[in-house]
Design goal:
Blueprint: E1 34-36, E2 39-41, E3 46-48, E4 51-53, E5 58-61, E6 65-68, E7 71-72, E8 75-80, H1 93-105, E9 110-113, H2 120-129, E10 132-136, H3 154-169, E11 175-182, H4 193-207, E12 213-217, H5 224-232, H6 243-252, E13 257-261, H7 267-273, E14 278-284, H8 289-298, E15 302-307, E16 322-324, H9 355-363, E17 369-373, E18 383-385, E19 409-413, E20 418-422, E21 425-430, E22 437-439
Parallel strand pairs: 8-9, 8-15, 9-10, 10-11, 11-12, 12-13, 13-14, 14-15
Antiparallel strand pairs: 1-4, 2-3, 5-6, 6-7, 16-18, 17-19, 19-22, 20-21
Length: 440
């Protein structure tokens, strides 16, 4: 029991310390939460609030990796937008519980909030169900990506909003890391970006110094000149910082964990340059799951992966689309009406498993093999799959009215060789490719 105290006139802060005995540590496997009931009373009235919390420790250790309660843990993560699909943008306990339950049932133990602070309801659910969270504040700073982005208000409100996020969320045990931004244009120093990055980091630590900080860096797709410099440095020796390392070094100085969006291939080199940092793949392509998992297994400083994206969402329409009989081969395939969702993710807009989720079962060693089939109408057609997309295979063998026609069977496995059988007859053997996919 924490003692009560008499506040002086005009005091609005009270601080006390106590020792908790016999508590159980919070983890994804044992999400034990407790309650604190602080109250305030005057001569005429009183008020109180119930605050839940858990007890756990997070530490970044360059020799052992990311430690939760003293033990190394890898983050098997999902990038998630704030909404719940067809339920809408409002946050409901039942919707958040369903999503977290489905994620946990499919091997996920972490969520990266993309790219804004989540609802308190979502964090409360993560506390109670045992889901780790990277709490992210910005998708842009003073340079916007869209006409009415937050950059219009950044100078006036950023510091207050950072403070509000941290003060609101710091008692949520599920929050293990703060993120200062995603693919920010100022990451390389543009428009006083280094000073802005330091201001954000300092403001977070002034309100909570118990958690590590990260930032989602990306290549210089927004600056062709910088991109040319990076490409010109590909032959530098591993121990020599290249152009990208030099440009993000100042921002890295604010952080404990470097987040890399689609830069996984750089980590073996960059972990030598940024020797005091850990790394996390803050965004990855769905078809890279086997490769990224092998990287995580072999590198202690690579602490996790957050796939883009886990759950289909409204916006970036068609970014994960498959185009049949294409005229072009773009990386991302944005489409127009009547499409209205991104068409990417392990799970559909309604939360049902898609082919990428069955593939991830194998990539994360949750299953030895998965077998899916393709609609016979699409057999033999040329196609382009977006970098954020996946095969349009299904976990079904029934295509009514298409009996007797050829189809494609997709087998996902990390085995050296697979043999496909149909009604007791072998259809042949194949070695899965480097991504763990064999097509019959």
């Amino acid at each position: 029991m924490i003692r009560s105290t008499q506040l002086k006139v005009d005091d609005n802060h009270f601080s006390a310390k106590t020792v908790l005995n016999g508590v159980s540590l919070w983890s994804p496997e044992t999400p034990v939460v407790y309650a604190l009931n602080p109250g305030l009373a005057t001569a005429n009235c009183s008020d109180s609030v119930l605050v839940s919390f858990g007890v756990r420790a997070v530490v970044c250790d360059c020799e052992r990796g990311f430690l939760l309660n003293g033990k190394p843990i890898k983050l098997y993560g999902s990038c998630n937008h704030h909404d719940n699909g067809i339920v809408g943008a409002a946050s409901y306990h039942s919707a958040e519980e369903r999503r977290v339950r489905i994620l946990k049932e499919n091997g996920f133990n972490a969520i990266r909030c993309s790219h804004n602070p989540p609802s308190s309801i979502m964090l409360d659910v993560c506390d109670r169900m045992g889901m780790l969270v990277i709490d992210e504040i910005f998708d842009c700073w003073t340079n916007g990506k869209m006409a009415y982005d937050y950059h219009l208000w950044f100078d006036k409100y950023a510091k207050d909003d950072i403070t509000l996020m941290v003060v609101r969320d710091r008692n949520h045990t599920s929050v293990i890391m703060w993120s200062t931004g995603n693919e920010i244009f100022e990451r390389a120093g543009k428009c006083d970006g280094y000073a802005i990055g330091k201001m954000i980091a300092d403001t977070i630590r002034q309100n909570d110094d118990t958690r590590p900080l990260t930032h989602a860096f990306c290549g210089f797709w927004d600056n062709s000149e910088f991109n040319d410099y990076v490409n010109g440095d590909v032959d530098l020796p591993p121990e020599q910082p290249d152009f990208l390392c030099k440009k993000i070094a100042a921002q890295a100085g604010n952080l404990e964990v470097l987040g890399y969006n689609y830069l996984t291939h750089r980590i073996p080199k960059d972990e030598r340059i940024f020797a005091s940092h850990l790394f996390v793949v803050t965004e990855s392509y769905p078809m890279d799951a086997v490769w990224v998992k092998s990287m995580m297994d072999s590198r202690k400083k690579l602490i996790g992966e957050f796939v883009w994206t886990c759950w289909d969402y409204f916006g970036e329409t068609g970014i994960g689309h498959i185009v049949y009989d294409p005229n072009t081969t773009p990386i991302g395939i944005l489409t127009s009406y009547p499409e209205h969702i991104s068409n990417c993710g392990d799970f559909s807009i309604c939360g049902f498993k898609k082919s990428a989720s069955y593939y991830r079962d194998v990539a994360w060693n949750r299953e030895t093999v998965r077998i899916l089939s393709v609609d016979p109408n699409n057999f033999g057609r040329s196609k382009v799959i977006s970098a954020w997309g996946f095969y349009d295979a299904e976990r079904t063998w029934n295509y009514s009215g298409k009996e007797g026609r050829f189809t494609e069977v997709q087998l996902y496995s990390t085995a050296d060789e697979c043999e496909l059988w149909l009604n007791g007859k072998s259809l042949g053997k194949k070695a899965p490719n480097e991504k763990g996919i064999a097509l019959f």
